[in-house]
Design a protein that fits this description.
transmembrane; 2 domains; membrane; Membrane protein DedA with SNARE-associated domain; transmembrane helix; mainly alpha; 8 helices
Length: 172
């Protein structure tokens, strides 16, 4: 992808990536809205449709909805900084029928951050991962070192948040 964008000014690449992120987010959001609307419209249909309707009625148990419930609309721009949870959070915001103007306003800073990251270092980071998987041992060592440090930081943050929850009388 970076070869595709090479030779263009940064602002053009950034605008292309921003519009792509915005359109993808809107499509995912509206897919969630359409899914919920269609599922709640009728209880008739084959067995798999009724089971889907029951699952969607209990959607509050899904990971995307949990993040939205805890972080509110801040989860939408933050979703653009994740890999793996982005689609789940945006789809869940459609499922729980977040008002479209609220979703669209919350999406702007997330899409801007995504375009900035992928317009600068994002594609280089993915290229490094692909090279590591392809067998360049120097890059593999760097990726493993980064993953190890990130894992340690994540474990410490998680342990501290559990300590805080226990001290406040919450569930750990």
């Amino acid at each position: 992808m970076e070869e595709f964008l090479a030779g263009y000014p940064f602002w053009a690449v950034w605008l292309f990536l921003y519009l792509g992120a915005t359109l993808r987010g809107q499509a995912t959001y509206w897919l969630g809205r359409a899914t919920m609307s269609g599922a709640m419209r009728t209880d008739r249909g084959p067995g798999w449709w009724r089971r889907t309707r029951v699952r969607l009625a209990g959607i509050e148990a899904g990971p995307g909805h949990r993040v939205l419930r805890q972080a509110g609309l801040f989860a939408i721009p933050l979703a653009y900084l994740t890999v793996g949870m982005q689609s789940a959070i945006i789809f869940a915001s459609g499922l729980i029928t977040t008002p479209w103007p609220h979703f669209s306003l919350a999406q702007i800073p997330g899409a801007m951050a995504w375009a900035t990251i992928y317009g600068t270092i994002g594609f280089a980071a993915w290229t490094a991962v692909i090279r590591a998987l392809a067998g360049d041992w120097r890059v593999m060592i760097g990726v493993l070192a980064f993953a190890g440090v990130a894992g340690l930081v994540w474990r410490r943050v998680r342990a501290r948040s559990r300590e805080v929850l226990v001290e406040e009388g919450g569930r750990a």
